[in-house]
Amino acid sequence: MKKLIIMTLFVFTCLVAKAQKADQFNSWWYYSGKYRLTEKFNIQTLYSWSRHDFIKKWQQSKLRLGASYDYLKNISFGAGYEWVVLFPYGAHPVPEKRTEHRIYEQFSIKSKIKTVSVSYGMLLEHRIMENRTRHRLRLIFGAKMPIIRSKEGETKLGVSFFNQVFLDIDKYANGNHFRQNRVYGAFDIPINKALTTSLGYMNQYIIINDNRIENDHTLMVGFFHKLDLRKKD
C-alpha cells in the first residue's frame, strides 16, 4: 500500500511538472438562497456570475434550483437542476461557448465543535452536454466560526472555509479521475438576520489534460439569503 501511494504521488508530480500551467485571475459574484417550507423541506437557489481577467470577460453563468430534506438535525439530502453556460476564456479556452444541463444529488453531515461549525458532504453531478453525458463527484469539507460577536451573542463578523475535490467517475475519465481542487476562505458579514454578505478568495486548480493545467486566483463576492416561510401559529 505504501509503495502504491508513493508511486501515485510520483506519477502525479511528473504530470504536473511537464504540464503547461496557466496562472489566471477571475472574479465570481453570486447569490445563494435557502427558503424553509416545512420542518424538513427547503428550497435552495443560486446564481453565479463568473468573470475572467477580473471582470472583463465572461467565464461562466450558472443558475441552480434545488430542494433539500433534513433527515435528522445534522443530516440532509438534496437534489436539483443547474443551467450552466461556459465561455471560452484564458490560456486554455474551450473551443466555443456551450451550455450544460446538470442534475445533481447530494448529502451533507454537520457538526459543531464549540463555536466552529463543520460540514462534510458529497455531490454527484450528471453533466448533460450536446454530444455526451458526463458524471462527476465532488467531495466537500467546510467550516465556519464567528470572530466578533455582540453582547447578545449575535455574530457581527465571521470566517468560513471550504475545500472541494472534483473526481470524474465516468468512462471518459480514462483512469484520470482527479480533475479539480478548490480551496476557499472568506469573511462573512451579517447584514441582518436574513442576509449575509461574504468577501473572500478561492484557488481553483484544474487539470484539463496531461499537458494543460489552470491555476485560477479568484475574488469571491457572495450574498446568502435565508427565509423561514413556515406558517406561524
Automatic annotation (TrEMBL):
The keyword Signal applies. Residues 1-19 form the signal peptide. It comes from the Bacteria. Keywords: Signal. This is DUF2490 domain-containing protein.
